[in-house]
Amino acid sequence: MIINSHEIELDDLDIAILQLLQKDGRIRNLDLAQQINLSPPATHTRVKRLEEYGYIRDYVALLDWASMGFDMICFIQINLQTHQPEVVDNFRNKIIDLPEVLECHHITGDSDYLLKVAISDRENMEHFIVKRLTPISGVARIHTSIALSEIKSTTALPIR
């Protein structure tokens, strides 16, 4: 099975490794090898190859937002006044520096960008919008939606 023809061909063992690592990024190499019926050295080599070719970007701990004091997850749609390269570059550089922004996507449709933002409360939301987003040069419109509940959240890609 070729998922990305510009890189390496992923076989069933590679797919199995990726599926297992998506469920548990801390799985020991020995346990991973046992689950895919491969020797530990061969499993380690495959994991390193998947990392080298960029199929595995990183290993992280996923924190519980509420436990960390972030009571609000918001989705913010942004429209820019113009799409001149300097305006777009300035906006992107400013957004990258905002730690509240978990994700920023350049999108199609009625808005130019969609932000996923973690905020502790309404007061900090107001501060974020008024003092951090609004002053960014080139921002024309900000539309905020607050998530009332989370129905599904995963980082696992549906690779089979």
What does this structure look like?
The protein is α+β, with helices and mostly antiparallel strands. The chain has two domains: 1-62, Orthogonal Bundle (Arc Repressor Mutant, subunit A), CATH 1.10.10; 66-146, Alpha-Beta Plaits. It is 36% helix and 19% strand. The protein has five helices and four strands. The protein has helices at 12-23, 29-36, 40-52, 85-96, 122-133, and strands spanning 72-80, 101-106, 113-119, 139-146. Strands 2-3-1-4 form a four-stranded antiparallel beta sheet. β2 (101-106) and β3 form a beta hairpin. α2 (29-36) crosses α3. It is elongated, with a radius of gyration of 20 Å. The model has no long low-confidence stretch (mean pLDDT 94).
What is the fold's blueprint, element by element?
Blueprint: H1 12-23, H2 29-36, H3 40-52, E1 72-80, H4 85-96, E2 101-106, E3 113-119, H5 122-133, E4 139-146
Antiparallel strand pairs: 1-3, 1-4, 2-3
Helix pairs in contact: 2-3
Q: Which blocks of ≥5 consecutive residues have pLDDT under 50?
A: none
CATH class (first level) name of the largest domain = Alpha Beta
List how many beta strands DSSP finds: 4
Shape-level CATH architecture of the largest domain: 2-Layer Sandwich
Specify the CATH homologous superfamily of the largest domain.
Answer: Lrp/AsnC effector binding domain/regulation of amino acid metabolism (RAM) domain
The total tally of domains equals 2
Secondary-structure-derived class? alpha+beta
Cα-based radius of gyration, to the nearest Å: 20 Å
Q: What is the N-to-C order of secondary-structure elements (H for helix, E for strand)?
A: HHHEHEEHE
Share of helix, binned: 25-40%
The percentage of residues in β strands lies in 15-25%
Q: Helical element count?
A: 5
**Major sheet, described briefly?**
4 strands, antiparallel
**Apparent shape:** elongated
CATH topology of the largest domain: Alpha-Beta Plaits
Mean pLDDT: 94
